[in-house]
Amino acid sequence: MKRTILLYGAGLGVAAIALEWLQYKYVVRAYAAEFYLLILALGFTALGVWAGRRLTSARPAGPFAPNRAALAALGVTDREYEVLKLLAEGLANKEIARRLDLSPNTVKTHIARLYEKLEAQRRTQAVQKARELALIP
Fold it and tell me: Which long-range contacts (CB under 8 A, 24 or more apart) does 22-30 make?
């Protein structure tokens, strides 16, 4: 009895597979261009997702903690560090001066000292080096 059921089930399975194969062949012939474009699109989508996950770094969990050792080694004062954080936000000298209750000339002096300590010539270079040293997020 078991043998008969197994043979009958296997026969039905082979018949179902044959019908699906025939339907697949019909779909591929009738919609050949669309079928291959779909396969190509799915392949490139999968490749993009895989590459995106491999190439983008995961952000560290938790709040940002500045590299205090680098700050001390560079000799960056607390006020210069405040100026650096506001500089990284893209604020102008006058805006930084208003936020910290300083004169614009004092802000320029702090920025000039930051340039020397970070060995930078421009604001963007200073911010980039500070991020590389994990001084700012």
Answer: none
pLDDT tens-digit profile of 7-63?
878 888 888 888 788 787 777 777 777 777 888 888 899 988 888 888 887 766 678
CB-based contact 135:66 (threshold 8 Å): yes
Give the orientation angle of helix 123-132 with respect to helix 78-88, to 10 degrees.
110
Q: How far apart are CA 134 and CA 47, in angstroms?
A: 32
Q: What is the pLDDT of residue 35?
A: 74
Architecture of domain 68-132: Orthogonal Bundle (1.10)
Residue 85 pLDDT greater than 90, yes or no: yes
Chain centroid offset of residue 99 CA: 31
- For the whole model, what pTM was predicted? 0.57
Q: Where in the chain are the domains? A: 2-55, 68-132
Cβ pair 124, 87 in contact under 8 A: no
